[in-house]
Amino acid sequence: MEFDPLTHPRSMKSFQVPELSLLIARGMTSKDASVNGSAAADAAKLARRYNIPIGLHANLSEGSPVCEVLKKNSSLLNQDGFFHGKMGFRTALSKGLLNMSEVKQELKAQVELFHELTGHLPPHMDGHQHVHVLPEVRHVFAEVLEEYGIKYTRVPIEPGLHNCDWIPPSLMDFYLGVEEDSFNTVDVFTKHGIRWPDIYIGLSTMGRNMSVSSIGSAIDSALLQLRAKAAQGSAATIELMVHPGYPSVPPVGGCGQGPDDFSQSWERLHELQTLIKPELQSHYKSRNIQLCSFKDL
């Protein structure tokens, strides 16, 4: 499929050269919650207390389902009774082993639980480990969003990804697979009236690769491409995917089977420390970038 993420007519705003860039830093200005996580209820309470915008990070690959009837004898579970995992989910899907009606059932159960915990439906919803753009799943995911009136999601197509030679080959292979799945998801989401930011950044700046310079370079490169392809005009929206936090200490954390490797690593804290650096805030100001959340769009 021929698709240019910088010119496709699916943006939340018209594709024009940004005089103002609106940066949605997921995890900082707008938080995603996985409702099957061990701290989901506490996270919802904190979001209400401090008025933190919160959306749903739908999880089909890590931990346990929230739908009671799927906790046993479900195609979504491995032999240990948990979700199949990041790559296990993809393998099961490719072999035709996943029941899409059960995928839809679990997604709806997670939306309902989110509503129960927060008192409102999620204004945005995406998929943990990008499962929402996978074949077959993308259709079910779009149907659920349309059914609940959830307007916004994530389409992880990152400008310049192919030039990021610091990403290990094995990880780059995964990222390029995510990119291809995302290309093939665009028309599905568009058909269902789902929107997403004009630009996505996050794969190249994740974890140990995050720095003030890497974020700044990724933003500048993406905006430069946008200026080259669009007419002078209004603001552009950018989603910066981030994972700030503190390393988990097992057995606390996770989604029912303990925390994963990334949540236990120093990289979470590294992201947090980077994102609050004054130099990064200065870069935003110098580029006329305004931090916002999905509720501001």
Automatic annotation (TrEMBL):
**Which superkingdom heads the taxonomic lineage of this protein's source?**
Eukaryota
A GO MF annotation of the entry reads:
deacetylase activity
The UniProt transmembrane annotation reads: none
Xref: InterPro entries: Glyco_hydro/deAcase_b/a-brl (IPR011330), YdjC-like (IPR006879)
Keywords per UniProt: Carbohydrate metabolism, Hydrolase, Magnesium, Metal-binding
Q: Which GO terms describe its biological process?
A: carbohydrate metabolic process
Cofactor requirement: Mg(2+)
Q: Which Pfam families does the annotation name?
A: YdjC (PF04794)
What family does the Swiss-Prot or TrEMBL record give for this protein? Belongs to the YdjC deacetylase family.
Query: Entry's PANTHER family?
Result: CARBOHYDRATE DEACETYLASE, YDJC DEACETYLASE FAMILY MEMBER
Q: What does this protein do?
A: Probably catalyzes the deacetylation of acetylated carbohydrates an important step in the degradation of oligosaccharides.
Protein name as it appears in the record: Carbohydrate deacetylase
